[in-house]
Specification:
single chain, about 240 residues, alpha/beta, seven-stranded mixed β-sheet, two-stranded parallel ribbon, binds guanosine-5'-triphosphate, binds magnesium ion
Length: about 240
């Protein structure tokens, strides 16, 4: 396994962006980072551009600015396409809000040698969440259970967004046919990966609630997730056949 890249979608993450980038680069893992910013009103993208211009990261930091806020799913699809046009062997998804501790990255990079998709999981032994309200825990765990049951898959943390794909997986999935814009995107990517027959591994992570900045989780995103799980199940045959 050779070169990897971390894709980080951002929307109003000015308070977190510098810290997360520094935390990753200090690990010296040899991976690049692509920030996909949806024209954040707080100008997160300008901060990233500033960091690129210092040349501290010697060409390892990249920035894509999109015109409108279209949800995390669309931002990832655009970012994935950018990566596939270049020679990256594995592509990591990570949030900017410091909920995903970069210290887990070496374990992802190790496991992706033997698996096609590595998922940072809150619901396997050794994993968990810190500082979440009971309601938030219930929504997340309930959401995972709901999706697992309807889709008939065994992944424990179906909604997590800290994960690593081999390039072949993203090449095999028809990115233009992804229906989920928000939260459901993670579920949909897992489902499509499994239906294509790829090997998945969950590694434990402790997920910490964001300290700075605002959550983009909304009722609309939540309802989309509930509905899309059913839609995906109904479309199982078409997904398998690549229609
Ligand atoms: N480019 C882009 N990034 C987004 C969009 N929505 C969310 N993000 C980013 O995606 C990551 C995850 O979003 P969060 O708001 O943390 O969502 P969450 O993790 O489900 O919820 P909390 O952690 O509770 O806030 C963060 O880095 C966000 O900045 C979007 O529409 N466009
Ligand atoms: Mg978050």
């Amino acid at each position: 396994m050779h070169k990897g890249i971390i894709v980080i979608p951002t929307y109003n993450e000015i308070e977190n962006i510098e810290t997360i980038l520094e935390k990753v680069f200090v690990l010296d893992l040899g991976v690049d980072i692509l920030i996909v910013d949806d024209n954040s009103p707080d100008k997160t993208y300008a901060k990233v551009q500033e960091m690129i211009d210092t040349d501290l990261y010697k060409g390892a930091l990249h920035l894509m600015i999109r015109e409108n806020k279209e949800g995390l799913g669309k931002a990832y699809v655009a970012g994935f396409k950018w990566c596939l046009e270049r020679e990256y062997d594995f592509i990591i998804e990570m949030d900017a809000d410091l909920s995903h501790d970069p210290k887990y990255l070496p374990s992802f990079i190790e496991n992706i040698k033997a698996y096609d998709l590595v998922i940072g999981s809150r619901y396997v032994k050794g994993g968990g969440v810190v500082n979440w309200s009971l309601l938030r825990k219930f929504i997340s765990f309930g959401g995972s259970t709901y999706a697992r049951t309807i889709l008939g898959i065994s992944i424990k943390d179906v909604t997590g967004g800290f994960k690593c794909f081999r390039r072949e997986v993203l090449e095999a999935i028809d990115l233009d046919n992804i229906i989920s814009a928000g939260y459901a995107f993670q579920i949909e990517m897992n489902y499509r990966t499994i239906l294509k027959g790829f090997k998945v591994k969950e590694v434990p992570i402790i997920f910490e609630d964001r300290v700075a900045g605002k959550s983009k989780m909304s009722k609309k995103i939540f309802i989309e997730a509930l509905l899309n799980v059913v839609t995906l199940r109904l479309n199982k045959k078409a997904i398998v056949e690549g229609l």
